[in-house]
Every structure is written in structure tokens, then in C-alpha cells.
Amino acid sequence: MSIFAIVQIILSVLLVVTIILQQRGSEAGIAFGGGTESFRSKRGLERFLFYSTIILTVLFAANSILTLVIS
């Protein structure tokens, strides 16, 4: 198993965990298009999860592309 495969597995698990933790805070009605909620800024853990999800997604995509280019 190559190092890229191991990194890909770790990134995918971390990405799934951050997405699941984000969804835990939202209401079911909002997830299905209902509910009118006014704009509010992200704070604390919510902001950390938001930015870490973006970073993990970029790393996951970069690792995938790098794996294709090298092999």
C-alpha cells in the first residue's frame, strides 16, 4: 500500500467525521428546505468545523489528483 493510499483513507475518514458533526447542529426542517432562519455568523466550534471541512476537501482532491498523476 502506498503512502498516498494511506493518506487518502485518513483524509476521507476525517472529512466524513467533520461533515457529520456539522449536520448534527442543523434542524431537520432546514435540511429539507423548510424553516426561515435569519442570517447569523458562525462562531467557535461551528466555524472551526466549517473551515476544517473546506481544508480537508481541498487536501482530499489534491491527493486524488496527485495519485493519478504519479501512477
Please, could you describe this protein's structure?
Helix 1 (3-24) packs antiparallel against helix 3 (45-70). This protein is mainly α and 71 residues long. It has one domain. It starts with a helix and ends with a helix. 73% of the residues lie in helices and 0% in strands. It has three helices and no strands.
Please outline the major beta sheet: none
Radius of gyration, in Å, reads: 16 Å
- Give the termini distance in whole angstroms: 13 Å
Helical amount among residues, as a percent range?
A: over 70%
Point out poorly predicted stretches. none
Note the run of SSEs as H and E.
HHH
Overall average residue pLDDT: 82
Q: Label the overall shape.
A: elongated
β-strand amount: under 5%
How many structural domains can be distinguished in the coordinates? Answer: 1
Number of strands: 0
Number of helical segments with 4 or more residues: 3
Key terms:
0% strand; mainly alpha; single chain; 71 residues
What is the secondary structure topology, with strand pairs?
Elements: H1 3-24, H2 28-31, H3 45-70
Helix pairs in contact: 1-3
Provide a quick synopsis of the model.
The chain is an all-alpha fold. 73% of the residues lie in helices and 0% in strands. The chain has one domain.
